[in-house]
Write the structure tokens for this entry.
Amino acid sequence: MKIFKTISFFVLIAILMAACNRDKNHPGYIYFPDMHYSQAYETYDVNPVFETGMTNRLPAEGTVPRGYQPYPFSEKTVQNQTNAGLMLINPIEVNEEVLAKGKEQFDIFCKVCHGPQGKGDGVIYTKKLFPVQPTSLVDDYVQNKPDGEIFHVITMGSLSGLMGAHGSMIPPENRWKIIHYVRTLAQ
């Protein structure tokens, strides 16, 4: 019995050594083909492996993407808006490049509602596509608000519900740049 174990051991070692091949045209033997040639599924394809049939999976609960900072005021309340105004400070220094990027982002996300000069006369209001005039960004009501409060409104939407949340569409850095650009509209 001992000799059988010894022979089996050496045969196993010989098989494993034979599988190690440095020839790049022949990577070796495949012992588990179902793992080596796995079935690939597109992100939104039906997948028979999971109960829900969905290939795209939600991340594990509590995970945070690399480089992402969770927003601390994630509820749309008056208190959170005020706290954001008191605690959040614009980390971006104003310069011509920042203002140019802020204008670019403003033109993409804000101009359609607030208008090219930020006076609340955007296309959706002037063409009667929206029944309520958007807030003028050049009036003292907005210009006197702290940057953090404006950041909160862009991120979470307005308390009235007339302006939707743009936090998922505009990266935080660009939101701060938009704020710098909005400050220049009143001048």
In short: The chain has a mean pLDDT of 90. The domain at 78-185 is CATH 1.10.760.10 (Cytochrome Bc1 Complex; Chain D, domain 2).
